[in-house]
Amino acid sequence: MQDYKDTYLENQVRRVARLQTEGKFIAADEYLAERLPLPRVDELPGIQYDARQHGYVVPWGRFTRGPVSGSWLLAEGQAPETQNPIRSVTTRVQDNRVFILLDEQMLPTSERWLAGENAYNLLARVNAGLVKDLALGLVACRLEWEETELDKRLHDLRLANDHVSVVCSSAVWDPDRHALVAITLVSPEQQSLRAITATLCTNSKKSLTLSVDNQTQAIENTRRKYIAVSGNLAAVGAEGHLVTLLHPLSGNPQEEASEAFYIVTAQGETLPTRFAERLNLAIPYPVRAAWAKYLLEQGLQENLVKKLSLAGDDFQEALWVSKAGGWRTIIENGLKQGLIKL
User: Fold this and answer.
1) In what order do the strands lie in the sheet with 105-108?
2) CB-based contacts of 105: which residues, under 8 Å, 6+ apart?
3) Residue 237 falls in which region: left (phi positive, over 0), alpha (psi -120 to 50) or beta
């Protein structure tokens, strides 16, 4: 089991909780209120800043600097309510879901671990949700995970046009041609999905931006309709809608006049088999399934095949494949050298 502890944050929790246990009332400035579940001092009813005493005053008391940076302690007066001491808890990542370990129970959160994100930032996102519940008073100071969880982290994916940005669970793109080849979009509103889809297919010069772990890729529209499969998340107990879009050149290459086509495989599919099937439809030379590995290797060497960029778990592998005449030479050489057989 791997683990990370934010010692500085844990010490802050310990110092504040000790005073709360003694009956002290503690508030926080704007910055600390984002880290600890404490009321913001500048939002307390009737509070004013007293420059002469370098503190805050309210009708029922006076605040001075507290035990940690950004905190304010009620030094005089009677608190309007009793504070439950805040406490430090451990979080655990399991199947890329983040759980809070509380009183020997694992409480699920909505957070997922993103690719390229370190443990410190993940804890910060968990705490951004916890600080909203002042009554619960929990602060995540430690994160645990198995080594295998690192391979399950999700990419931070978004696809945006000039007006809307939509979260993506997976994406395949062709950086050489600035083309979006396959994508799964998720949104609470169908209108956002329709806006993105319309921009992809429009005849205008409008473009989109694909953001992958804070790196951006310009996407040009196809001026053609994408292959689309849509659904509702209610079937899996969630709210919202999703749609998977496939580039029009990812269909049957025999039906397209283009000089190239795309191949996209889902999890569990075999790429060489799909490659041989599609190439057989695309070129005028017969291709046998047993030749798949040889043709794929030679195609990559001769730049007749290029691997595409992808992120997420929906798609396993993807290729751009040329229909150019170089395939005839590759097949003839393979037969002469005995690398493939009729």
Assistant:
1) 2-5, 138-145, 87-94, 97-102, 105-108
2) none
3) left
Q: Where are the beta strands (DSSP E) in 66-156?
A: 71-77, 87-94, 97-102, 105-108, 138-145
Question: What are the tens digits of pLDDT across the range 254-283?
Answer: 888 899 999 999 877 888 989 999 999 999
Residues 9, 14, 20: CA angle, nearest 5 degrees? 125
Distance separating alpha carbons of residues 292 and 333, to the nearest angstrom: 15
Please tell me the predicted confidence (pLDDT) of residue 237: 47
Query: Residue 272 corresponds to which amino acid?
Result: P
Of 18, 70, 69, nearest in space to 39 by CA: 70
Sign of CA dihedral 120, 122, 128, 131: negative
pLDDT in tens, 165-177: 888 888 999 999 9
How would residue 236 be classed by pLDDT, with cut points 50, 70 and 90? very low
Instruction: DSSP letter for 34, please.
Output: G
Considering only CA atoms, which of 139, 190, 142, 131 is closest in space to residue 166? 190
User: Which is nearest to 243 in space by CA: 168, 299, 165?
Assistant: 168
